Amino acid sequence: MTKFLVDKAANIPQDHLRNVTLGGKEILIVNQKGRYLALNNICSHAGAELHEGLLENNELVCPWHGAKWNIETGELVWFTQDLENLESYNVIVENDRVFVEI
């Protein structure tokens, strides 16, 4: 695995969905109450960019068709058909800097 620098922790506001490209992958970063999480940013249904969706409590909601995933695990919570879970990535915070391992 490779460790990529995302940004300073202070530059990632709470509950804000942010898209970054790391190692050729589109990654969604979210600061949820001081805990940083990283998931694949592309919907496994129709390819929507999930950072344009909503964060409702612990669920990420797709902006196109409303599919919902658990923000911590990437597991599908709800949709009208089975979809692939979103890949989740390990996040490391060191010296006020946020890194993602891919």
Polypeptide structure, described:
This protein has 102 residues and is mostly beta strands. It has one domain (3-101): Rieske [2Fe-2S] iron-sulphur domain (Rieske Iron-sulfur Protein, 3-layer Sandwich). It has no helices and 10 strands. The strands form 2 sheets. The chain has a 6-stranded antiparallel β-sheet, with no helix packed on it. It has a 4-stranded antiparallel β-sheet with strand order 5-6-7-8, with no helix packed on it. The radius of gyration is 13 Å and the shape is globular. The protein starts with a strand and ends with a strand.
What overall geometry do the principal axes of the alpha carbons give? globular
- The overall strand count is 10
How far the N terminus sits from the C terminus, by CA atoms, comes to 5 Å
- CATH level-3 fold name: Rieske Iron-sulfur Protein
Superfamily (CATH H level) name: Rieske [2Fe-2S] iron-sulphur domain
The CATH class name reads Mainly Beta
How many helices? The count is: 0
Strands of the largest sheet, in order across it?
A: 1-10-9-4-3-2
Range of helix content = under 10%
* Number of separate domains: 1
Mean pLDDT: 97
Weakly predicted, low-confidence segments: none
Q: Supply Rg.
A: 13 Å
Name given to the CATH architecture:
3-layer Sandwich
Order of helices and strands: EEEEEEEEEE
Q: Strand pairing plus helix content: what structural class?
A: mainly beta
Largest sheet: 6 strands, antiparallel
